[in-house]
Write a structure and sequence with these properties.
Pfam families: Cupin_2, HTH_3. Helix content is 26%, strand content 29%. The two termini are 29 Å apart.
């Protein structure tokens, strides 16, 4: 990724127009446009002003520029969660996630097993049952979720999942978004 492309990306992520960035960095909109299209190279001082207006600095800008974004995560990249209850196997599917407020997991519930009860917290959670069927407990409500069905709820309730089968495992993708 070129410097101009990265600046444009940061500007768009911050919902800022070229005009707003120019005003905040004390530069012209035309100059910002040329920099974003890599038609002009900013001086170090101008680049610092642009980055300050975007809420970052030279160090972070260039360290992120050099790091290639990881797109595909293999089975070997998964991180086991060791404090799961007996009969529950959980693995984080990503080693890092940007933004850092999403946590996707692969969960395998042995017959009759359940996850720990989670207290209400901020965010939302969703899941997709790959194999088997589960019971989703939200406060005092119980929902049956079968193979190839999805669940989605606000995490502001006491919640957990249980494999209702006494003979088959249940496998699901569970994503927490904070």
């Amino acid at each position: 990724m070129q410097i101009g492309e990265k600046i444009k990306s940061l500007r768009i992520m911050r919902n800022m127009t070229q005009e707003e960035l120019a005003t905040r960095s004390d530069l012209t909109r035309g100059f910002i446009s040329q920099v974003e299209r890599d038609l002009a190279s900013p001086t170090v001082e101008n680049l610092e002003m642009i980055l300050r207006a975007l809420g970052t600095d030279l160090k972070d800008f260039f360290s992120n520029l050099e790091n290639k974004e990881k797109i595909v995560f293999t089975k070997e990249d998964r991180i086991p969660i060791y404090d799961s209850p007996t009969g529950v196997k959980e693995e984080l599917l990503l080693t890092t996630s940007e933004p850092k407020n999403i946590e996707p997991s692969l969960v395998v519930l042995e017959p009759g097993c359940s996850t720990d009860i989670e207290k209400p917290h901020e965010g939302v959670e969703l899941g997709y049952v790959i194999e088997g069927e589960i019971e989703l407990y939200l406060n005092k409500e119980v929902y049956l979720v079968r193979k190839e069905e999805t669940f989605f709820y606000s995490a502001n309730k006491k919640h957990f999942i249980k494999n209702k089968s006494s003979t088959n495992s249940a496998t699901l993708i569970w994503i927490e978004i904070f």
